[in-house]
Amino acid sequence: MKQIIYLSLTFIVFFTACSNSNSDKEKELLKLELELAKKELELKNKEEQLNEVENETEETPQPNSYTERNPMASSLRAKNIPDPIENTLEKEKKHPMDYLKLDFNFDSETYRKGLGALKIRTEKKRKYVAKGSIYNNATYATYKDATIEVRYRSDNGSIVGTQRLKLNTYMSPKKSTQFKYDLNVPNGTQRVSGNLISVVSVN
For the chain, which ranges sit under pLDDT 70? Predict the structure, then answer.
C-alpha cells in the first residue's frame, strides 16, 4: 500500500512540475525519478511474491497417530469423551489376528527347465507352490509384513519340516491381499498346512 501511495505522489509531482516548469532538463530528471520509482516498486512486489511462495512450499510434518490426523479426536479427548473410532482402531491394532483371515492352498505346477550350457533342450519339471490370500476384516487398521508358517507333515501327522513366508506388503481394511510362493517340500511330506503367525500394525 505504501508503494502505491508513493508512486501516485510521484505521478502528481511529475505532472505538476511538467506544467509549471519550462526547463527540459528538469522534465528529464523527473522522468528518470519516475522510472526509478516504478522499478523499485516492481522489485518489492517480486520480493513479496517470492516470500509468499516460500511460505506455501514449506513442508508440513505428517501426523503419525490417529489423534493427530483427526482434530475431532483431540477435542473429544480433551473433554474426556470417548471416541468410538479411536477405541475401535486401538482394539484392532492390539488384536490383529482377530481381524485377519488366511486362505492357504497347497498346489503343484509344471514348468520347463533348460538343460545344458545353451539351454536349448528342456525337460518338464514339477514344483510345489503355496498360494492364497489374506483378508483384512478390520474397519480402520492397516497391517503389513504378515508371516505365514508352512508345516510339512508325514502320513502319521509328525512334522518333517517347516518354512516361513513373509508378505512384504500392506493390507488395507476390508480388502484381500493375494500371495504365491515356491515351496521347498522335504521328503516324506504327505500333508501341508499354513498358519498366520505374526503381522505388524501400521496406523
Answer: 1-23, 25-27, 29-30, 32-33, 36-37, 43-83, 112-123, 203
Q: Give the span between the Cα atoms of 161 and 151, in whole angstroms.
A: 6
pLDDT digits (tens, 9 = 90+) for 34-49: 776 677 777 666 666 6
Say which CATH number the domain at 163 has.
2.60.40
Burial 160-187 (b: 16+ CB within 10 A, else e): ebebebebeeebebeeebebebebebee
Instruction: Look up the domain containing 34 and give its range.
Output: 2-45
Q: Where do we find the cell 506544467?
A: 19
Distance CA 146, CA 96 (A): 10
For the chain, give percent helix, strand, coil, nearest 5.
Answer: 40, 35, 25
pTM of the model: 0.56
> In 10 A of CB 96, how many CB atoms?
19
Compute CA distances 37 → 34, 41, 42, 145, whole Å.
Answer: 5, 6, 9, 65
Place of cell 522522468: 31
